[in-house]
């Protein structure tokens, strides 16, 4: 924009205000809260004042207010691709001040039980690996697979397996602070900082789960957080994942669908704490 254009715009604004036309208040950037399924967002939508639904393609959003601040609930649908698309649409359409991905997950840490909540200090993609070459008949050995970094600009065409750390997406410090404040009031289980593992694979092999937990520090697994985190990073939007344990094969905790409400109410408290931080 040229200087002359800026000057003209300023003169126009001054003229309108001088004529008694009130200048519009700047619109607040909303907070987006995501869940993959209806059971992971229904309670959130009920917390919003004047929630209005809208669709972009197949993806659904509800725009409303919480404590007088604009909040958007996003139904991402299940899986990494859906979460990526929903996050990109939310980022480009609503320009949010922050994105929180929440919902249910299966435990990797034997110390976690149903209703325990993991604040995702990091999220990782446990579906992105490179396998070493093995001839037919040599079998498959998951413990020899190496993580692939999806943020590299060039494709790795080498046949060599490089021992390198798993790419992790750290949570935003401000959102973590709000989550820790919300944790002070949660009474249905314990709240811990941990690592949320995501992929389009549903793992039930206990040895495989133990490998993820021991080698990469995973606390739990689900199918959206790391994908949403990667897209939020591309838009430079503060991001955090939050998940409640809904079952844990490592200690026999059976599936409890009611845990999803606990995650949503806990996330509501996070959003309120974050709004308080934004208003300070």
Concise overview:
The chain has 280 residues and is of the alpha/beta class.
Explain the overall architecture:
This protein is an alpha/beta fold and 280 residues long. It is built from 7 helices and 12 strands. The strands form 2 sheets. The protein has a 5-stranded mixed barrel, surrounded by 4 helices. A two-stranded antiparallel sheet has the order 7-8. Strand 2 and strand 3 form a beta hairpin. Helix 3 runs parallel beside helix 6 and helix 4 crosses helix 7. The two termini are 33 Å apart.
Over all CA atoms, what is the radius of gyration?
22 Å
Largest sheet: 5 strands, mixed, barrel
Total strands: 12
List low-pLDDT spans: 1-25
- Mean pLDDT equals 89
**What is the overall shape?**
globular
Record the strand order, biggest sheet.
Answer: 5-11-10-6-12
What order do the helices and strands follow? HEHEEEHEEEEEHEHEHEH
Helix content: 25-40%
- Percentage of residues in DSSP E strands: 25-35%
Strand pairing plus helix content: what structural class? alpha/beta
How far from one another are the termini?
Answer: 33 Å
Number of helices: 7
């Amino acid at each position: 924009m040229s200087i002359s254009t800026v000057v003209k715009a300023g003169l126009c604004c001054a003229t309108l205000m001088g004529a008694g036309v009130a200048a519009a208040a700047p619109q607040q950037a909303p907070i987006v809260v995501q869940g993959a399924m209806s059971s992971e967002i229904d309670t959130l939508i009920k917390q919003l004042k004047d929630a209005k639904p809208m669709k972009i393609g197949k993806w659904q959003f509800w725009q409303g207010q919480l404590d007088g601040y604009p909040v958007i609930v996003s139904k991402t649908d299940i899986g990494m691709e859906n979460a990526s698309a929903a996050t990109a649409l939310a980022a480009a359409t609503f320009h949010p001040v922050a994105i929180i991905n929440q919902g249910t997950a299966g435990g990797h840490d034997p110390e976690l039980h149903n209703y325990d909540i993991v604040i995702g200090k990091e999220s990782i993609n446990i579906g992105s690996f490179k396998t070493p070459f093995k001839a037919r008949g040599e079998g498959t050995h998951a413990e020899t697979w190496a993580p692939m970094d999806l943020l590299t600009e060039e494709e790795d065409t080498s046949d060599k397996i490089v021992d390198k750390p798993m790419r992790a997406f750290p949570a935003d410090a401000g959102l973590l602070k709000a989550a820790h404040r919300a944790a002070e009031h949660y009474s249905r289980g314990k709240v811990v900082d941990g690592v949320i593992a995501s992929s389009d694979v549903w793992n039930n092999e206990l040895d495989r789960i133990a490998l993820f937990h021991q080698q990469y520090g995973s606390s739990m697994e689900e199918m959206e957080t790391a994908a949403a985190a990667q897209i939020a990073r591309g838009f430079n939007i503060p991001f955090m994942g939050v998940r409640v344990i809904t079952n844990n094969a490592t200690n026999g905790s059976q599936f409890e669908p009611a845990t999803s409400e606990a995650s949503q109410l806990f996330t509501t408290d996070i959003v309120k704490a974050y709004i308080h931080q934004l208003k300070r």
